[in-house]
Design brief:
Elements lengths: L8 H9 L14 H4 L13 E5 L6 H6 L11 H4 L4 E5 L3 H10 L4 E5 H6 L1 H4 L7 E10 L3 E5 L13 E5 L5 H10 L8 E5 L9 H4 L7 E5 H7 L17 E5 L8 E7 H6 L1 H23 L4 H15 L5 H9 L1 E3 L2 H9 L7 H15 L9 E2 L10
Parallel strand pairs: 1-2, 4-12, 6-7, 6-8
Antiparallel strand pairs: 3-10, 4-10, 4-11, 5-8, 5-9
Helix pairs in contact: 13-14
Length: about 375
Amino acid sequence: MRSILLFSAAVLALLFARGVFAEPEFIEPEPLAARINTAVGPVKNTQPLRVPMITWGGDMISILANGMNTRTQPGSAMAKAGLNYEFVLQDNFDKQLQDYLSGASPYLRCTIGMCNQALDLINKDPRTRPVVIYQLTWSRGGDTLVAKNGIVRVGELKGKTIAIQAYGPHVDFMTTLLTQAGLKMSDVNLKWMPDLTLSPNSPPEALKLPEIDASFMIISDAYGLTSGRRVGTGSNGSITGARMIISTMFARRIIADVYVVRADYFEKNKAEVQSFVQTLMSASAQLQELMRDLSNPQKLQLLEASADILLGDKNAQPDIENLYYDAQFVDKQGNVDFFSNPQFPHRLEVLNDRVQDAFNAMGLIKTRAPMAKADWDYSLLSE
């Protein structure tokens, strides 16, 4: 899901081979409530209001709505809604949580799994209890599980060793896949990594070690290790026998990307928060039309702005398009289903219960609590 720049796997492999990077180091994860001790403060009354974003295709919605800029531009959809926001790229969830607790920002930009990993921390104070307000996307092919040593199915991971980023977007992806395959968390050995990608301390690099049987990673890393989504040959940075055994292309509606707001800010600013959601929903619909229109010069402008903001290189437009297609964008009806449809099998409550069951069993959290959601009728919002 988190396809960042498609750096050459061969170049990275050469750097590691020459000893530029050290061997991967593993960590022992502890609950976020034990790691982060930021004092809770009131939300700072500053303009523009800080709102986090992450390196993901779904965040093109925010860029488009804000006038193709991190700061709200005159005439943009955000400005027309009376909003004045600064979107800040924060892929480090610890930093997001620190800002959220301190009041530097009332928002979190996360997945349902990531938010639940912080449940004990953000539920301690009633002011910071999370309210889920909008779903941007589902992951659609951007996240994958790569295995070697002849493993071709998730069920064959029993007794095997898996590398995964701690506190990242793949933890609930992993727990869901193992459960669906009839495995318990105690059936596998986990090796936790601090980083997601482009680092010696990331799951793709750990898979090169003989003791690691499988790793969760983003699709851009998997392409290099599997010789272009086939079976790794051992050449050009690939790993002999490495193959993608499943991705979110075939295991969809597991990783839900959302915006969350502090309970105290939501109660005092419901009209503003609803305007934010309404603007994102309209911008998402506009984004889909724009990306289909090959002749529209605004599409090129958006790709360039998104590449610059999310990847730090305005020329990385092919990579931004890959990010876009890694995501299944959730429209108005999708948000209605996610928040309000008791028959929808992937609604917020179902994801929340499933994730909390797994995370409590793993010791990542110690409590269970429903995830609050906005108390308005999503079907009445215009798209």
